[in-house]
Amino acid sequence: MSENLQIFASLTVAIFIEAAPFLLIGSLLASFFEVFAEEDLIARLVPKNPFKGIMFGLFIGMLLPTCECGIVPIVRRMLGKGVPPATAIAYMLAAPVINPIVMISTYVAFRGDLWMVGGRVAMVAIVAAAMGWVLSGASMRELLLNPSASHSCHSGCCGHDHHHQHGHGHGHRQGRLLAVLRHTAGEFLSMGKFLLLGAIITALFKTFTPAGVLNIFESSELLAIITMMVLAILLSVCSEADAFVAASFSSFPPAAQLAFMAIGPMVDLKLIAMFSAVFKRRIIFYLIFGPVFLVFCLAIIMGVILSRV
């Protein structure tokens, strides 16, 4: 028993320590975006063509990375500034994964396996584009609970202050930098709790699950995919760190690990709570069940592809 406890403690610490630096870097970059970025500029740059708008939404995360914790209030303000729903929804679902920090963390977590990095990006991009297209015809009134209050969700949605401060002068710039540091600290501490919880549950699962049960998951790709998707939704690990949790399930099929990394940043418990504070019920249904269904189908397809690589 003492040996199992040592293994459990070692796994928990190893997962947390590996992932924490990427969570910190991601929190810092997201904080710079929260404090300095202007959604008016994004609205002016968005292409009018819906298809081009979706592509713009998919890859703007490369320039404006943010984790899923702060993405919902950002997208609410984008919609209020006139950003088309197709672009805003695609950005909301894709940005937590299709950004440099998350791609690098995935690369490191899977020891340089580009198939896992590319598979994760491809799955998220397909789902985000599909949902952007499905909701492209919706108006802001059809999407939002309170369309007239496009700036009302600066703090309550995810427990952080997402207010953009404006002004001029050296003192104000210093104030903005302090705001970045405060936001970074709050983001890291808040999401660090989810990372620690994910590391603990993962270590418990790997250490104390009987070998016979693990063999069932390892031999059944379908069951492994479903299990990993449920875990991703329940654990709510931040996208900058979830690859390390997924990689720790090394005996699970790669398709199941991809499903974990794809669905978590688009649908988890904290996101569902934020969706309910911002979007109407019908839209929440689409934002939850659409990605779940698509990720499940894509994971099955990815399993077939990866088995032949």
Written description of the protein model:
With 309 residues, the protein is mostly helical. Helix content is 73%, strand content 0%. The chain is built from 15 helices and no strands. It has helices at 2-36, 39-45, 50-59, 68-80, 85-94, 100-109, 114-134, 140-143, 170-208, 211-219, 221-235, 242-248, 254-263, 269-278, 281-307. α12 runs antiparallel to α13 (254-263). It is globular. It starts with a helix and ends with a helix. The model is unreliable at 151-168 (pLDDT under 50).
Q: What is the helix/strand order? A: HHHHHHHHHHHHHHH
End-to-end distance: 40 Å
The chain-level mean pLDDT equals 83
Shape: globular
Could you estimate the helical fraction of the residues in percent?
over 70%
Keywords:
309 residues, mainly alpha, 15 helices
Concise structural overview:
This protein is mostly helical and 309 residues long. Helices cover 73% and strands 0% of the residues.
Please render the helix and strand layout as text:
Elements: H1 2-36, H2 39-45, H3 50-59, H4 68-80, H5 85-94, H6 100-109, H7 114-134, H8 140-143, H9 170-208, H10 211-219, H11 221-235, H12 242-248, H13 254-263, H14 269-278, H15 281-307
